[in-house]
Amino acid sequence: MSDKQEKGRPILKRNWVRALIAFFVLQLILIISDRNGWSLNVRDIDGTIFDRVSKSQVFTEWFAPYNNSLFNIFSAFFTIILLPYAIINAIKDLFSKKQTNNHAG
């Protein structure tokens, strides 16, 4: 029985895969909303922090995948939050499996 290898967790139950799926689903929602002209029902953002950030050069020239400026901000926010988490945990998962396979008798 000691020769029997334990099965690892299924790929979809790993946290980094869930973060990637969440990122792609959010991007898909933003793409569909932007293409159909749907917009968020928010109050007037003139004079707020969102207004200043959305009119900055970063979101008007450099990073502007969507026509709606709020979608650009949300996309950047989710990219900054979800992608590093997924990449770091995928690398940890890859190297931890390599080490356990090399040291397992």
Overall mean pLDDT: 81
Number of helices: 4
- End-to-end C-alpha gap: 14 Å
The unreliable regions are: 1-6
Shape: elongated
**What oligomerization state is this entry in?**
single chain
Let me know the number of strands.
Answer: 0
Radius of gyration: 20 Å
Q: Could you estimate the helical fraction of the residues in percent?
A: 55-70%
Strand proportion, as a percent range, falls in: under 5%
Major β-sheet, in short?
A: none
> Structural class of the helices, strands and pairings?
mainly alpha
Order of helices and strands: HHHH
Describe it for me?
The protein is mainly α. The protein is built from four helices and no strands. The chain has helices at 15-36, 49-54, 57-62, 69-103. The longest helix has 35 residues, at 69-103. It is elongated. The relative contact order is 0.14.
Summarize this structure briefly.
This protein is mainly alpha-helical and 105 residues long. Helices cover 66% and strands 0% of the residues.
Topology:
Blueprint: H1 15-36, H2 49-54, H3 57-62, H4 69-103
Helix pairs in contact: 1-4
Descriptive terms for the model:
105 residues; mainly alpha; disordered N terminus
